[in-house]
Amino acid sequence: MTSEITLFVNPTAGRGRGAHAAQPAAAALRARGFSVRTVIGVDAPDALRRAREAVDGGTGALIAVGGDGMASLALQAVAGTRTPLGVIAVGTGNDFARALGLPVREPAAAGEAVAEALKGAHTRDVDLGRVEGTWFGTVLASGFDSRVNDRGNRMRWPTGRFKYDLAMIAELAAFRTVPYRIVLDGETVHEVEATLVAVGNGSSYGGGMKICAAADMSDGLFDVTVVGDCSRTTLLKVFPRVYKGTHLDHPKVTVYRAAKVEIAAPDITGYADGEPLGALPLTAECVPGAVRVLAPRAVAG
């Protein structure tokens, strides 16, 4: 492995934590004899182009410094290659880092963990989801949660997480279920009225909401969580349980497992790793061992 390591930095992540987090990460790597190069794009397409150039140029590892959006961008550069990916998670959600058992919002500890993994060649291969050439590490979300994202993204004020809290309140006021058509592995078809459908490679989204709590990133399968035709009152009762994953026991919740999932519903946008993919229908495939990560063998629950 070459000793040159690339830090892929989002300086605005976590209200500026990204810029500060790059410093201890770089220091930890240099202390172990690695040469560190920093990549910051003027926008997402430019950043991705620079990251791909680093990977094509033989960098020893690509280290994403930021939140889930930055980790998602990094996946587009390293998926399908043997270049290992590290994550210094300092964003708002950080669900990809959580799924890998990595420190969250502790840049010094995360930097040390990456440096130790590189020095000891401690890597492992994990699965990724893929939708029409776009890779994702955690969850493809659709339904109520994606409508909240849609509304929040349209709002100019307020900023930060509070904007999405307000968007959720507004969507609850306009709550409705949606007719879904779900096809599993090209064979099993489910036509249901659903509140939401989440296709999970990882277990959580939204900063620790364990919507697909039992998802395993090394089994070659998605966990598909379907929240059925519940009422607004039932949704409000079940929603708090998602942080512990105990919502999976509710009679309105069903979980399927499949390597390929097709979901269709009218007027619904799909979001993967928090980023918009486009309107349904969408088809997701689980690709075993698609990315090599600098992470411990044991995954945090």
Helix content: 25-40%
Q: What is the ordering of alpha helices and beta strands?
A: EHEHEHEHHEEEHHEEEEHEEEEE
- Termini distance? 31 Å
Major β-sheet, in short?
6 strands, antiparallel
Ranges with pLDDT <50 over ≥5 residues?
Answer: none
The count of domains is 2
Q: Order of strands across the biggest sheet?
A: 6-5-16-13-8-9
- In CATH's first tier, which class of the largest domain applies? Mainly Beta
Please tell me the overall pLDDT: 90
GO molecular function: ATP binding; ATP-dependent diacylglycerol kinase activity; metal ion binding
Family: Belongs to the diacylglycerol/lipid kinase family.
Protein name: Diacylglycerol kinase
Pfam families: DAGK_cat (PF00781), YegS_C (PF19279)
Question: How is this fold's topology laid out?
Answer:
Elements: E1 4-9, H1 13-31, E2 35-39, H2 44-56, E3 62-66, H3 68-78, E4 85-89, H4 95-100, H5 107-119, E5 124-131, E6 134-136, E7 139-143, H6 144-154, H7 161-173, E8 178-184, E9 188-194, E10 196-200, E11 222-227, H8 232-238, E12 253-258, E13 260-264, E14 269-272, E15 275-279, E16 282-293
Parallel strand pairs: 1-2, 1-3, 3-4
Antiparallel strand pairs: 5-6, 5-16, 7-10, 7-14, 8-9, 8-13, 10-11, 11-12, 13-16, 14-15
Pfam families: DAGK_cat (PF00781), YegS_C (PF19279)
Domain DAGKc: 1-135
GO molecular function: ATP binding; ATP-dependent diacylglycerol kinase activity; metal ion binding
